[in-house]
């Protein structure tokens, strides 16, 4: 396969930034809902939820899988840029460790407003996935797939209860690897909550790294390949979901109405991400990635998508500033309205009896947040492009 032209290189990177920007925007919606529109039921609990709350949560399911996957693609493209496995290894290792430290030392207290429990979320798992990928890059692509794809396929067969019983005093290790939950160490002096265990997320990044090779192909072939692969993932998801054969602990259960049946069909397991969940999100994501490249190459709709590219160019910068802003403003709002600052994300038990979750308020705050952060993100992206500072490359 021949290398892409400079114009095609620009369009492919632009498409990645736009999709990453869309992910950031949807992620912000989910986090805004957590601080401003918390419900006393899970938005995906079919017994209590309304379809509007369900889809507000469900649409954000695409964020983590696609972001981890795109990180793998970006790692491959960086390797093509430097043409040196040692430099790529150092890049992945250093940034992976940096992300882990950020999650533990900076991001965790920004969620809570204090430092009570270490919360290991998506930034943590991206960091560890990059650390593992720094070793995997020395293998041929076929061996990377041989090691990681089976994990994607079979991890739903793991018995978490049996594994924790087998590990006895080291059950915390399985929590870090596959079974989300709390870890209390040293007589509860160190409290950790693992939201994103390592399995199978690192396999998603490895898959993205291997599929990054498609960006060395001619554009028409790449777009066709990504589209077909995405459709294939989606079809396999539909077949698995309808048949209830394998791939998700939550079975599809047809309901009395069409809308609730659709909700049941889409209600897949995220923590940890099931095979069906990953197929459901990565499939359409691949199709969208291919179509975005086609649109940007032909300048169709690009002006309307340019603002997404701004957010996608500085995702970590956006992540680091948006959580404390949402949290701080939400606590100020509850103080003014209820006379007490309340972190609704972590302490909904303090909500007064007259509290009622408002989706309209949630969406309004989300849109205001995006408008407020657009200029800072744009300025920071310009600063990164114009500066040769190594420190800026870490944000």
UniProtKB/TrEMBL annotation:
Transmembrane segments annotated in the record for this chain: 21-38, 58-79, 91-112, 118-138, 143-158, 198-217, 229-247, 274-292, 313-335, 355-375
Sorted UniProt keywords: Membrane, Transmembrane, Transmembrane helix
Read off the Pfam families from this record: HGSNAT_cat
Q: Does the keyword Repeat apply?
A: no
Q: Does the keyword Mitochondrion apply?
A: no
Q: Where is the Heparan-alpha-glucosaminide N-acetyltransferase catalytic domain?
A: 12-218
Query: What is the name of the protein in this document?
Result: Heparan-alpha-glucosaminide N-acetyltransferase catalytic domain-containing protein
What is the species listed in this Swiss-Prot or TrEMBL entry? Pseudoalteromonas holothuriae
């Amino acid at each position: 396969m021949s290398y892409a032209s400079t114009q095609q290189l620009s369009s492919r990177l632009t498409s990645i930034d736009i999709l990453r920007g869309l992910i950031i925007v949807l992620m912000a919606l989910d986090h805004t809902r957590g601080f401003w529109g918390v419900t006393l039921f899970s938005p995906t609990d079919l017994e209590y939820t309304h379809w509007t709350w369900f889809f507000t949560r469900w649409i954000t399911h695409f964020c983590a899988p696609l972001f981890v996957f795109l990180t793998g693609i970006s790692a491959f493209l960086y390797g093509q840029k430097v043409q040196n496995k040692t430099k790529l290894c150092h890049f992945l290792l250093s940034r992976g460790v940096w992300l882990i430290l950020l999650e533990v030392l900076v991001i965790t207290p920004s969620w809570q407003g204090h430092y009570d429990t270490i919360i290991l979320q998506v930034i943590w798992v991206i960091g560890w996935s990059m650390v593992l990928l720094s070793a995997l890059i020395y293998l041929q692509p076929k061996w990377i797939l041989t090691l990681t794809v089976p994990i994607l396929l079979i991890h739903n067969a793991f018995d978490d209860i049996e594994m924790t019983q087998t590990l006895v005093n080291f059950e915390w290790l399985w929590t870090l690897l596959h079974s989300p939950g709390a870890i209390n160490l040293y007589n509860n002096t160190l409290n950790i909550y693992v939201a994103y265990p390592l399995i199978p997320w690192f396999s998603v990044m490895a898959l993205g790294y291997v599929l990054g090779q498609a960006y060395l192909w001619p554009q028409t072939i790449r777009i066709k390949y990504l589209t077909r692969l995405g459709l294939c993932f989606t079809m396999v998801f539909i077949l698995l979901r309808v048949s209830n054969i394998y791939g998700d602990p939550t079975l599809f259960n047809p309901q009395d109405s069409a809308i609730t049946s659709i909700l049941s069909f889409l209600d897949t397991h995220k923590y940890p991400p099931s095979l069906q969940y990953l197929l459901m999100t990565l499939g359409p994501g691949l199709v969208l990635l291919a179509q975005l490249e086609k649109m940007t190459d032909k300048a169709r709709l690009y002006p309307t998508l340019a603002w997404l590219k701004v957010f996608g160019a500085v995702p970590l910068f956006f992540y680091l500033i948006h959580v404390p802003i949402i949290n701080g403003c939400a606590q100020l709002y509850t103080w003014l309205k209820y006379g007490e600052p309340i972190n609704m994300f972590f302490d909904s038990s303090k909500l007064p009896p007259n509290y009622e979750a408002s989706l309209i308020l949630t969406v309004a705050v989300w849109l205001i947040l995006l408008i407020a952060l657009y200029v800072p993100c744009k300025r920071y992206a310009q600063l990164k492009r114009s500066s040769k500072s190594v420190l800026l490359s870490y944000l």
